[in-house]
Write a structure and sequence with these properties.
FAD/NAD(P)-binding domain, 424 residues, binds flavin-adenine dinucleotide, four-stranded mixed beta sheet, alpha/beta, four-stranded parallel beta sheet
Length: 424
């Protein structure tokens, strides 16, 4: 028997829905999902009382989703140490920011990118990305994906909730954009790139009850990592005329007569006024801001019990969303999609359990253990008591464990991993 642990909690995080199509690499369990839990399993139930006829905890308390101090803009800055001019400012050097900056520069716009982190310690987040039909994948024999089929599958597994235009845009442009993003990599760089779950292991599956899975990620766990690739894109943007300022933080957008007129930023010297016509808010998510997570994920926030917490591996504080909101942008009203079961951390959280037979504290089976690991499957914790759950296996475990799906935080059933499983 293997106990669930609450160790996942600190390492769960928010991300983009697009990652649902990706899967993982090193040492069997991988990807950007938590790859393990604390070895100290929490066995007490934390004092929760179950209500009769229901396995849901009865002491669910409502978190205050009306705590909205982040909606208030900061006081206007009038004293500036510097003033810059350009057409567009990009805030954030992450995947969204660096690609927006390069694109704008290549279109001939005068663009400035500002990034909060210092240049010498700057690091991109994550290692691998989902790609439909990138040239490098096709060359290596990774199966071609029909963008429309991908779109239909995506909408199906997300209950038709996402913005369909965005999902289709991703599906139809993934090939071209992946090739563009990777166009400066050398052969040596590509030599360190792998594709999780490809080539497939002997009993790897591609479908579960009508839901499709594709092994189609560009995994950069080697010498060429995402930081290096972002820097290649920075070089391309610089060649096209873009300017970069690290250790510079976006504060708020200056609006004039309902239109963007500039951005207030800050660095070690003080405030900077940047006069421009457009601002790209690419400051990442809000995983470092519990108040905003509570507001944007009320479904999770209101399911929290005494020991639960919304946690994330990200330090981003939601400033990009705040700046857009203060400037008049409309906030999405549906709960925000979050990765790894929306960052909910509970003692009975199950995303590290292997595919075996799962039972609850009463010995009852309660879920389809095969369902995609960390995202959808973990969500079922919400409906359960917070008591320890168990994965029951027999001596044939290492045999049936070979029937796997290529999925985020999935298991690569190669000989080495199976042997290590047998040992453990
Ligand atoms: C630990 C971890 C591992 C992950 N692994 C993967 C993976 O393997 N594959 C995958 O597809 N996804 C992964 N994800 C999710 C993925 O990293 C995010 O979806 C992606 O980084 C989002 O891109 P972005 O450009 O919107 O934001 P980010 O990449 O977070 O970039 C935002 C940038 O803005 C900067 N910034 C923030 N505030 C300001 C400000 N006020 N002014 C200026 N700059 C600011 C930040 O420092 C940061 O550099 C992972 C996430 C985490 C947290």
């Amino acid at each position: 028997m293997e106990k669930t642990t609450k160790g996942m909690s600190r390492r769960s995080f928010i991300g983009m829905g697009a990652v649902a199509a990706m899967a993982a690499g090193a040492a069997g369990l991988a990807g950007c999902a938590p790859a393990g839990g604390d070895s100290t399993a929490k066995t007490e139930d934390g004092g929760h009382i179950e209500s009769a006829g229901s396995s849901a905890p009865s002491d669910v308390h409502i978190h205050n989703v009306t705590d909205t101090s982040w909606m208030t803009p900061p006081a206007e800055v009038t004293d500036f140490a510097k003033e810059w001019d350009c057409e567009a400012v990009v805030c954030g050097h992450g995947f969204a920011g660096i690609t927006a900056c390069r694109e704008l520069a290549e279109q001939g716009k005068k663009v400035i990118l500002i990034e909060k982190q210092p240049e010498d310690t700057y690091a991109a987040v994550g290692n691998e990305f989902a790609s439909l039909n990138a040239k490098i994948l096709q060359e290596r024999g990774v199966p071609h994906i029909d963008p429309v089929e991908f779109y239909q599958n995506f909408m199906k597994i997300t209950s038709n909730m996402p913005n369909p235009t965005l999902v289709m845009k991703f599906a139809q442009n993934s090939e071209e954009n992946s090739n563009w993003y990777l166009d400066r990599l050398t052969e040596e760089d590509f030599a360190t790139m792998t594709t999780a779950f490809f080539p497939p292991t002997e009993h790897q599956m591609g479908e579960l009850s009508g839901i499709k899975f594709w092994p189609s990620v560009c995994s950069f766990y080697g010498e060429c990592n995402q930081t290096k690739i972002q820097m290649y894109n920075q070089a391309a943007a610089e060649e096209a005329g873009a300017e970069f300022h690290f250790a510079t933080t976006a504060e708020y957008i200056i609006m004039q007569d309902g239109a963007v007129a500039g951005l207030v930023a800050s660095d070690a010297d003080g405030y900077i006024k940047i006069n421009c016509k457009a601002v790209v808010c690419a400051c990442g998510g809000m995983g470092g801001n519990p108040e905003m997570m509570t507001y944007f994920m009320p479904d999770m926030a209101q399911a929290l019990t005494g020991e639960d917490a919304l946690t994330s591996m990200s330090a981003n504080d939601g400033r990009g969303v705040q700046m857009a909101y203060w400037a008049g942008a409309h906030l999405e009203t549906t709960p925000v999609a979050g990765m790894n079961m929306k960052g909910l951390a509970v003692p009975g959280k199950m995303n590290c359990l292997p595919q075996a037979v799962w039972i609850d504290e009463n010995g009852r089976r309660f879920a389809n253990e095969y369902y995609p690991t960390s995202e959808q499957r973990g969500y079922q914790t919400v409906f359960m008591s917070r008591k320890t759950k168990y994965a029951v296996v027999d001596n044939n475990f290492t045999e049936y464990r070979q029937y796997t799906l290529p999925q985020h935080a999935g298991f690569t059933a190669n000989e080495e991993n199976i042997a290590s499983l047998r040992d453990s």
